[in-house]
Specification:
Blueprint lengths: L3 E6 L6 H13 L2 E7 L10 H12 L6 E6 L4 H8 L3 E5 L3 H17 L4 E5 L10 H7 L5 H6 L4 H14 L2
Parallel strand pairs: 1-2, 1-4, 2-3, 4-5
């Protein structure tokens, strides 16, 4: 039986932490579906189409068992069931992530008992790397050197272009 995992996020922007998770997920599962999901509660820097293009570029060098999908509506567990996936891959960087992910995993398990959440702890150098962290640094004095260390080169270039558009 093929082991399919789902790794979902808003990826605004994709970070080196996301890449680490995707690389490890590709090793763990026969197929890893990276899901670009819509989170209406987040104010995004990049549009859904821009994020899809960035993820496509980032995933280009990933193993062949990784593919990209977009889910704009509905529950992730429903998408996972339709895909034949039995695993939801999530990253736990700290206790805040754990406290957020624990009730989500329990609710997902109630909705789809056959689907399990799998948690990975990234290395220490990625502990503070998050999309919101990166967005928060953008446009601050000397932001480039900090952000460049947190995102893939293509994402850094896209952020420079994007932020150049919005600055006076």
């Amino acid at each position: 039986m093929k082991r399919t995992g789902i790794y979902a996020g808003s990826f605004d922007p994709p970070t080196n932490g996301h890449l680490w998770m995707i690389s490890r997920g590709a090793e763990l599962f026969d197929e890893l579906v990276v899901v670009l999901a819509c989170n209406p509660e987040k104010r995004c820097l990049f549009s859904m189409d821009e994020r899809k293009a960035l993820l496509g570029e980032v995933l280009r060098d990933m193993p062949g068992n990784v593919r990209l999908a977009v889910v704009q509506h509905g529950f992730l567990v429903d998408f996972a069931r339709r895909e034949g996936a039995r695993y939801l891959l999530r990253g736990i960087r700290n206790t805040v992530d754990f406290e957020y992910e624990k009730p989500m995993a329990r609710m997902n398990s109630r909705m789809e008992p056959e689907i399990q959440s799998v948690f990975l702890v990234p290395p220490g150098e990625l502990e503070e790397v998050s999309s919101s962290f990166v967005r928060g640094f953008a446009c601050m004095t000397d932001w480039e050197r900090w952000v460049q260390a947190c995102v893939p080169p293509c994402v850094y270039a896209a952020m420079k272009r994007k932020l150049g558009e919005v600055q006076p």
